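Example: Helix-turn-helix domain-containing protein.
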Amino acid sequence: MVENKALTPQEVADVLKISKSTVYDLMKRRELNAYRVGKKLRVDLEDVENYKNKTKDVKHINTLALEPSRPISSPIYEETHDKSSSFIISGQDVILDILCRYLDRQPNGVRALRSYAGSYNAVYALYQGEVQMATAHMWDGKTGEYNVPYIERMLPGTPAVVIRLASRMQGFYVAKGNPKNIKDWNDLRRSDITIINREKGSGTRILLDEHLRKLGISGRSINGYSRESQSHLAIASTVARGDADLGIGNEKACLQVQGIDFIPIQKEQYDMIIKKEDLNCPAFEAIFEIIRSDEFKFELQGLGGYGLTELGKVIAET
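Written out as structure tokens, the predicted fold is:
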């Protein structure tokens, strides 16, 4: 019989060999029982064992269950929902998880929490004062620019600063060998192509919709357009399983999934956005020091898949 020991979310993550953010996602979906002791979440070891036994009979594990998939309207915040006293960074890239780790150990830093919202919703949350820093990769089809045209519209009367984090290659995920000979956006006109889409508000979804608008293609005419998933890895996995012919995502995620090829389509810019009034706050001074440090840059270079020549550069002030 399992000793009924109380575990922290990190201890659960260590037992299951998954990330702590995935543990929170399992709790939210009520696949893993949890309870609060004050503001802290705890899980009984017996419930962890029950969860493991419950999933042992599953022959094909759905990658969606392994990736944080959070409703756009209700992002998860680690450990506490007391947003008024928290420093929250919103966005989905692993760069932000690494930044939070550096920020936690920085002398003038803070213990930052993470909200895994897509680009549009992250910027909107910044405008509403729900997060202190947002990140985005939203392409504007009219200007060909990333992020700045959206920031100017979405933060009315709110001076903001846009700082470059990285460039990434976006493209199509297709089955190994590209059996349907998919080449570019025009292939979305074909009736024999089924896609798996990203959720509304994500930068990848905006990229798709902007190109469809420019080409005069209706989303309703595309097989699978209304079927959504909330991570690059989940999209890649869907294509690898043969449940879709095409998905859109960044090159780095593609490298983690077997059975698919990547067709480069467009280089994108991934930026962080902060309110100008916060520039002199100690936490943001610490962030600037971190992202402009060699140590932080070298760690990101080790991950691969990022262009870092402009890391830490102020791209625009609105």
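The longest strand covers residues 160-175.
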